[in-house]
Amino acid sequence: MIASEPSPAPSIDRQDFESGILGRPVYRLTLPPPPRSSTLAGPLTLLRERLTQEGVGLVACRIGAGDAEAAAALEAAGFRRIECLVTLSRPLGVPGEMPPGTGTAVPADHESCLAIGRTAFTFDRFHADDRFPDEAADRLKEAWVRNSFAGRADACLVSRDGATAVGFVMCRFSQGQPAIDLIAVALSHQARGHGRRLVAAAMAHYAPNYATISVATQQSNLPSMALYRALGFAVMGSELTYHLVP
Fold first, then answer.
1. Could you give the 3-state DSSP secondary structure of residue 47?
2. Could you tell me if 70 and 83 are in contact, meaning their C-beta atoms sit under 8 angstroms apart?
3. Are 54 and 170 in a shared domain?
4. How many structural domains comprise the chain?
5. Is 18 contained in some domain?
6. Which of 6, 133, 184, 236 is 20 to 30 A away from residue 111, measured at CA?
7. CATH code of the domain in which 172 resides
8. Is the separation of the CB atoms in 210 and 177 below 8 Å?
C-alpha cells in the first residue's frame, strides 16, 4: 500500500496594513485545501494557544462555504464566523460609453472619496465584528481608499453630482481579469442610481480589452446583491470568513 502524502500544515502571514490600523498584530491563517490527510483540530488549538501568549490582536481565515470540516475545526478552536463573502462575475460584452456624470478620479476628488470611505461602509467584516470599534473599521476603509489612489488600484472612477465626487469604484486585477475592489456612495446620495452608474463605468472602462469583470460582496449586503444581479452578474462561489481574537 502506498502511503498518502501528509496535508500541508496551516500557515499564518502577518498583515501589515490591518496591523497598522488596529494597533496590534493581525495575521491571516491559510488552511490546507480538502481533501486533507490529517485533522485540523490539534494544530489549530496549538496555534490559538501560541498566538494568545504572543498578544496577537486578530487572526482571520477564509474557507470555502462548503468546507464543513474546516468550519468545525475553526469553531472548536475559538474562531467566530463573521461573514459569507459572495463572488459574482459577468461577461463584459460589447464596449459601451461611460455613463453621464462618471469618469476617472482627479486629485480634486480625493478628499471627497476619503470622506466617503470613512463613513459609507457598514457590511464589511470589521464593522460586522462587534469586538472592533466602528471607528477603527472606518479608518481602515479610509486608508484603503488612500492606498487605492496611491497605486493599489488599476482604475479609480467616480460618480459626480455637479463638480463633487459622491461615489467611487476602485478596480484592480484578479487572476488576470478586472475586479471591483471597493465601491461606495456617500450616504447623502444613496438610492439615486450612483451605484449602478459606477458599476457601468467600471464595465465600460474594461470592456474593450477584457472578457469578464468580477466583484465580491457580503451575502448580508442585500442592496449590493440585488444591484449586481440586476446588472447581469452571476454567483461564482462563496467563502466564509472567521475571526479569532485571542
1. helix
2. no
3. no
4. 2
5. yes
6. 133
7. 3.40.630.30
8. yes
Of 6 and 172, more confident: 172
CA distance 220 to 72: 22
For 235: left if phi > 0, alpha if psi spans -120 to 50, otherwise beta; the answer is: beta
Closest CA to 207 of 108, 90, 110: 90
Is 2 part of a structural domain of the chain?
Answer: no
- Which strands form 80-91's sheet, in the order they lie side by side? 11-14, 26-30, 58-64, 234-244, 80-91, 212-218, 177-185, 164-174, 155-161, 102-104
Record the pTM.
0.92
Closest CA to 175 of 70, 87, 108: 87
Closest by CA position to 61, among listed 36, 100, 27 = 27
Candidates 194, 173, 170; CA nearest to 182 is: 170
Measured at the alpha carbon of residue 243, what is the angle toward residues 17 and 174, in degrees to the nearest 5?
55
The two most distant CA atoms of the chain are separated, in Å, by 73
Set of cell numbers at residue 78: 475559538
Residue labelled with grid coordinates 498583515? 15
> End-to-end alpha-carbon separation of the chain, Å?
42
The string of pLDDT tens digits covering residues 13-57 is 999 999 999 999 999 999 999 988 788 988 999 999 998 888 899
**Pair 235, 85: CB distance under 8 Å:** no
Contact 172, 181 (CB under 8 A): yes
Kind of pairing between the strands at 164-174 and 58-64? unpaired
The DSSP secondary-structure symbol of 78 reads: T
> What residue has cell string 504572543?
54
